[in-house]
Amino acid sequence: MDSSAQSAASTKHVVIVGAGFAGLNCAKKLASDSSLRITLIDKNNYQQFQPLYYQVATGILSPENAAFNLSNVLVHHENVDVKMSVVVSVDLATRTGRSRIRIAQ
Predict the structure, then answer these.
(1) Torsions phi, psi of 44, nearest 5?
(2) Against a cut of 0.70, is the pTM above it?
(3) What's the burial of 80, exposed, middle or buried (CB within 10 Å: 0-12/13-18/19+)?
(4) Into how many domains does the chain fold?
């Protein structure tokens, strides 16, 4: 077995469904482990904190303080891949999941 095949075999794949506070923080924390390959799946490509929207609407905060792009947050972590999709089922026995691609409306 060559070194690249050994490396691929020793790399564990972690899939995180949902990029809210818990999912995003989990991805950031796990990203420091280079032996992991991480896929973060969310129906949106951004995270938002809705309680701050009224402050954005009144001009107290800029929109960047209430919503931000997930890929920009994780850009420095080469082992993290952000996918925009909706997970519709997970099979724990086979360790697989099914998702559908979300079409922008």
Answers:
(1) -120, 160
(2) yes
(3) buried
(4) 1
SS3 state at 103:
coil
pLDDT band at 104 (very low <50, low <70, confident <90, very high): very low
Which tens digits make up the pLDDT trace of 29-70? Answer: 999 999 999 999 999 988 888 888 889 899 998 888 888 889
> How many angstroms separate the CA atoms of 12 and 35, rounded?
7
Residue 46, domain CATH: 3.50.50.60
With respect to residue 46, please indicate whether it lies within any of the assigned structural domains. Answer: yes
91 CB-near residues (< 8 Å, 6+ apart): 97
